[in-house]
């Protein structure tokens, strides 16, 4: 064995990797890889800068070596989201900040104990943006996977249609070896396309969730149970407080009360979080994919440029007109979101009104923040074609205020004990009618109308979707009994 070191190429330039070897190392060795390598060479890939080729090899290996389950590459999405928050700046939560969150939430729970019977949920968590990404990403995947499956299937059909329109005589247009049937490549490319599609959607989710992590002040601010318990993002709370001309400590307390109230509601009403998630999934599962738009985007884009391909597909995924089923799911979800935020608004203002001098100003600032739409809305608009906005927050708050004034705090919170008791979209139009119905339930039950029948049908549909969701994800999430037990133990 020689002791002499191997000779390096002149100027220490990296050697040009062989495409056949690259594809064999990434995709496994078979003759189809050699054909694909030959096609890529004829397209000029062999002349790419060696360093760029090595970077491409590492990216392909990362994408192809990681097992992908489902339509979303969750590992890639998490990695992209973490890099997004890191690029924007994300410091670890200090011990001082963590203790401050614990103390603020303790005070928040003492105030909430005076205005609601829903039990406290703990312990409180102070999260960095990256930690919020890690804790919420499984739920994001659960929410967007239905539409990801539809989009991936549509992209695959569109690319297959493009290839099927070609014949062996058109192979030269794609830089393929003479005699190769482009349509026959579809079967060989299908597994790789599925991985690439899952990776593309995963990267899109990662970018969106990473941007969202830089804005949210708490774990469940958007109205969905993305995290368990009470979670605050101290860095984002500080950013939010800067533009309000209100003492930062007061802002911190107010936002902690809102988050603690929302956590109590989700823990104390087991059907609520599941119903919201089921509504989002129902909307996404019935989304109409604009196949013709995707075909046009693919035919016009440069297939050798993944970035150009992704850019071409943006804005071409969803048909403009929602289906009837989507409209029902959207109306149901918007009502639930409004009820959640309306109840939180009422309870928070009652809890803080005697303690914080700027409760009214802070409440209005939060309402404007939600009503104007922000990162949460952009996330859902880009991922599932859905705006996530409690449009009728004020109306919902009026319903709970009217109920509390007429029947007391227990009746207000009792509206959540069953979906049949919760206010409907029609009740948001006429809060006093809802109060009268709650005051005279026997009379209302004796005179059902068409609205009641329609509501019952909608609730039955939601219950069926919820049962299906629980059967598929019950092993991953803590059960309702566990959550209730935790809440009682921490009260």
Automatic annotation (TrEMBL):
<feature type="region of interest" description="Disordered">
    <location>
        <begin position="459"/>
        <end position="491"/>
    </location>
</feature>
<dbReference type="InterPro" id="IPR042271">
    <property type="entry name" value="Zinicin_2_N"/>
</dbReference>
<keyword id="KW-0378">Hydrolase</keyword>
<feature type="compositionally biased region" description="Acidic residues">
    <location>
        <begin position="474"/>
        <end position="484"/>
    </location>
</feature>
<dbReference type="Pfam" id="PF10103">
    <property type="entry name" value="Zincin_2"/>
</dbReference>
<dbReference type="GO" id="GO:0016787">
    <property type="term" value="F:hydrolase activity"/>
</dbReference>
<protein>
    <submittedName>
        <fullName>Hydrolase</fullName>
    </submittedName>
</protein>
<dbReference type="InterPro" id="IPR018766">
    <property type="entry name" value="Zinicin_2"/>
</dbReference>
């Amino acid at each position: 064995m020689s002791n002499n070191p191997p000779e390096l190429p002149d100027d220490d330039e990296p050697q040009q990797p062989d495409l056949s070897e690259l594809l064999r190392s990434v995709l496994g060795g078979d003759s189809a890889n050699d054909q694909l390598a030959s096609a890529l060479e004829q397209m000029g890939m062999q002349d790419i800068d060696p360093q760029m080729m090595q970077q491409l090899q590492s990216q392909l290996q990362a994408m192809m070596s990681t097992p992908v389950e489902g339509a979303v590459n969750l590992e890639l999405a998490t990695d992209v989201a973490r890099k997004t928050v890191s690029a924007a700046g994300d410091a670890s939560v200090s011990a001082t900040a963590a203790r401050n969150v614990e103390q603020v939430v303790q005070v928040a729970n003492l105030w909430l104990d005076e205005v609601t019977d829903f039990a406290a949920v703990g312990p409180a968590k102070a999260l960095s943006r990256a930690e919020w990404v890690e804790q919420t990403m499984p739920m994001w995947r659960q929410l967007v996977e239905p539409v990801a499956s539809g989009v991936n299937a549509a992209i695959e059909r569109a690319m297959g249609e493009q290839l099927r329109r070609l014949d062996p005589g058109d192979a030269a247009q794609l830089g393929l070896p003479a005699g190769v049937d482009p349509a026959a490549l579809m079967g060989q490319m299908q597994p790789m396309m599925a991985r690439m599609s899952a990776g593309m959607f995963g990267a899109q989710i990662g970018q969106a969730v990473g941007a969202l992590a830089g804005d949210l002040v708490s774990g469940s601010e958007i109205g969905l149970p993305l995290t368990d318990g009470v979670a605050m993002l101290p860095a984002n709370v500080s950013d939010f407080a800067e533009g309000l001309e209100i003492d930062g400590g007061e802002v911190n307390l107010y936002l902690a009360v809102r988050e603690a109230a929302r956590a109590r509601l989700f823990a104390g009403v087991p059907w609520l979080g599941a119903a919201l998630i089921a509504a989002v999934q129902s909307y996404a599962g019935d989304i109409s994919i604009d196949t013709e738009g995707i075909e046009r985007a693919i035919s016009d884009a440069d297939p050798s440029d993944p970035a150009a391909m992704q850019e071409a597909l943006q804005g071409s995924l969803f048909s403009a007109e929602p289906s009837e089923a989507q409209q029902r799911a959207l109306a149901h979800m918007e009502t639930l979101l409004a009820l959640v935020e309306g109840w939180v608004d009422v309870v928070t203002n009652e809890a803080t009104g005697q303690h914080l001098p700027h409760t009214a100003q802070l409440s209005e600032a939060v309402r404007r923040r939600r009503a104007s739409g922000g990162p949460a809305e952009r996330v859902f608009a880009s991922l599932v074609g859905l705006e996530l906005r409690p449009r009728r927050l004020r109306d919902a708050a009026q319903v709970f205020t009217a109920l509390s004034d007429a029947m007391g705090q227990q009746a207000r919170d009792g509206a959540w004990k069953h979906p049949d008791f919760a206010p409907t979209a029609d009740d948001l139009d006429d809060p006093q009618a809802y109060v009268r119905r709650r005051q005279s339930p026997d009379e209302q039950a004796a005179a059902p109308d068409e609205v009641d029948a329609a509501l019952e049908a909608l609730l039955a549909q939601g219950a069926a979707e919820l049962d299906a969701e629980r059967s598929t994800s019950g092993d991953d999430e803590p059960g309702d009994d566990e959550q209730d037990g935790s809440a009682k133990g921490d009260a």
